[in-house]
UniProtKB/TrEMBL annotation:
Molecular function (Gene Ontology), one example: oxidoreductase activity
Ranges for domain 2Fe-2S ferredoxin-type: 1-76
PANTHER family, sorted: BLR6046 PROTEIN, OXIDOREDUCTASE WITH IRON-SULFUR SUBUNIT
The protein, known as: Oxidoreductase
Keywords per UniProt: 2Fe-2S, Iron, Iron-sulfur, Metal-binding
Record keyword Iron-sulfur present: yes
């Protein structure tokens, strides 16, 4: 039995310690923002925030989460309002198929919470998140828009 804090709520889960956090989030907690993509920490689809850092959850063992605060795509909204990054992705129509949306948004949130990045910094931060649709220009515009809003 493990207790993990996800989206500001403590959850008791009964799962093996080596169970990937992604499976616990999706199967035990019913959170479907994080996606199963490659299962090898290479595509970014499964990313979550762990104490503010964007981390792949597909191979992160539950036992390593400990007392860390985990935030999923579902937990980014505050008082029913989308996070500025989520709103910017919608406004800029930055997603097509949506497979990469979770990882891109989670990585962008971690990035803009550290400061107002340059466009090159945005591209560098997002380079490990795979997008098959070719929406990269709109994604960079969305992150720029959110960063400008948060850091004015």
């Amino acid at each position: 039995m493990f207790t993990i804090n996800v989206n500001g709520v403590d959850h008791r889960v009964e799962a093996p310690g080596d169970a990937p956090l992604l499976f616990v989030l999706r199967n035990d907690l019913g959170l479907h923002g994080p996606q199963f993509g490659c299962g090898e920490e290479a595509c970014g689809a499964c990313k979550v925030l762990v104490d503010g850092a964007a981390v792949p959850s597909c191979r992160l063992p539950l036992q390593r989460v400990g007392a860390a605060r985990v935030v999923t795509l579902e937990g980014l909204a505050e008082e029913g309002e989308p996070h500025p990054v989520q709103r910017a992705f919608s406004d800029e129509q930055a997603m097509q198929c949506g497979m990469c949306a979770n990882g891109m948004i989670i990585e962008a949130v971690a990035l803009v919470m550290r400061g107002n990045p340059t466009d090159d910094g945005i591209r560098e931060a997002l380079q490990d998140n795979l997008c098959r649709c070719g929406a990269h220009h709109r994604i960079v515009r969305a992150v720029r828009r959110a960063a400008d809003e948060l850091w004015r």
